[in-house]
Fold:
Amino acid sequence: MKNLAAILGACALATSAAAQQPGIQQQFEAATEALNAQKWVDAVSAFEALEPRLAKNARSLAIVRVRKGTALFELRRDAEAAAAVKAGLAALPAGDASLREDRFLALMLLGNMDGRALDYASALARYREAEHFADAPQSKVRALVAMVQSGTFVDPDAALANADRLQALVVTLSPDKAAEARFADLKGRVLLNLGRFKDAQEEFGRSVKALGGLSLRVDQDDVIARSDYAIAAMLAGDEDRARNYLAYTGAGRLPKDGLGMGPDTPAPPCGGPDGLQPDDVGVVEFGIADDGSVVAPRPIYSSRRGTSALEFARAVADWSWAPEKVKDIPPLFRMLTRIEMRCSTVSARPSIPALLRPGLNSWLSEKAVDPVSIEETSNARRLPLLVAELARREAAQGASAFQLMPVLAELASSPVLGANEALVYARRALTIADASQVPPVARLYLSHLQWKSAAGADRNAASYLGAIEAAMQDERIRKDAVARAALRLMLVDSRGQKWNREDEALLRSVIDDDGLAASDPFRVGALIRLASQQFRQGDDEAARATFKLSGLSSEQCALVDAPPALKKGSISDSDFPQEALTWGFSGWTSVQFDIAADGKTMNHRALFAYPPFVFGDVTAGYFRRFEYEPSYRPGQTLGCGGKMQRVTYRHHGG
Structure:
């Protein structure tokens, strides 16, 4: 009887729970209400709760998955969103006319995800398909807007035709002024990228006028329209109007240090999948999140038709800023930043520490230490994932475990982490390493991380040199050929370019080290340094013989070459461009140039510039008067080209 009572009681509870569970329609309406209210997390949870209840109703389940995908997209969970939307789209009955709107929504969502991934060709294909299901005028407008935006950098001629179709359709809908401005700006953007600068300027002028003209009121739409007008006017040669409109965006007038480049903002290499050329110029718009990562990078302009603009935007997508620098930028300008860009002609040359890092990785692999398997490529977005991975390993293995070392090393070398925080991680990694008899090369790499972060934390560059000099007495390093060679080159480079007998002796000790292979990069680096010094001292024959020992051809870059020292040249307040000074602009430019073997500069290019088209070209020209110490290359060829120099212009009122 007792067992029967228990069974009856359980049945009663189940019946009560079933009675309390809302109906499917009621649950769907609640989920849709959360979606419409932009409560994305609640909407995902509500739609997911519906899915098992609709397992036998393919049609309804497909609708739920598409709508769940909308919320996931807004949460930037694109992989999950794409899976949900694709599953829903595939299950929508093709012949059901009542589901045309759902099919339109699904295709637009997939296009938006492709667009966010900067795959504009795939996005355009999705939007074109979506247009076939756009029955309402508003849906047709959405599809056309998306087709123009993506097509501008894939099929600009078709994008222009779609822009005309869009404007003809919009006229029938009596748009408000803000919408009218956006549609004019869309068409202007296409004309801009077709090289029709005057026509683009006219369209952007309509956009600015629709928004109320050049008033002191500035919101997001104003900044976009005025900035677009300024770019078109500058490219059309109408420089006075360009500067006037740019002044009314507020760009170049940011407080404190304004918007500077972050510590992790590499330029895309010339060549690449889209065939970037040194003369290609792009303008990319993007936002910067609180954590220093880039939000919504999008191309605005490219000097060459086609997808080259997307290559610039893809490079920006992985840029990172230090969070403490981001907070000083006003929110509006942080979310609407525009940078003028060019590709880099310089091949990446690994630093001395970078050549030591494989020694640490190899040793950790031998010890069966799990590598860090985080796919995120943006250092700003990677940082919290590394912190979480460290906490996970600490909980599983302990605070002094071997398994922590690769995570600690990555954290200590993160370009977006402050020096004080990096120093804590570097010290922990070195402590674990010393307790584990780490090989000298691996220990030197970890020691360098500590020296570098300690110098940054103390703001004392001399402490870095002092640490290297002290390490020269470390028997563990002195007994390893690669470690001692790397440390000697570090010491030579850290003491500056002034030549002395001690540095020559250090370089020769690396060159003559029997423990190094003939092609070892540190030995090659020592030969290149010595050849250049011999050349500067006028001993051409010795320089030629030393360079020949390196095994490099005349056009090859040394793996561990050192940049030549500046001999003469400077930029002063008197070089502030007069037009920018008159309009009150502040900004900066990063110039890339090559240094010939005789020390003269050449191939000057503004690699980055903010604001676009204000400081770049004039600053690049200033470096024609710079001269560096000569470097030996057979036949006086360029050898290792490429030098980066930043120039910041700060207006007293900006």
DSSP finds 29 helices and eight strands in the chain. Residues 1-19 have pLDDT under 50 and may be disordered.
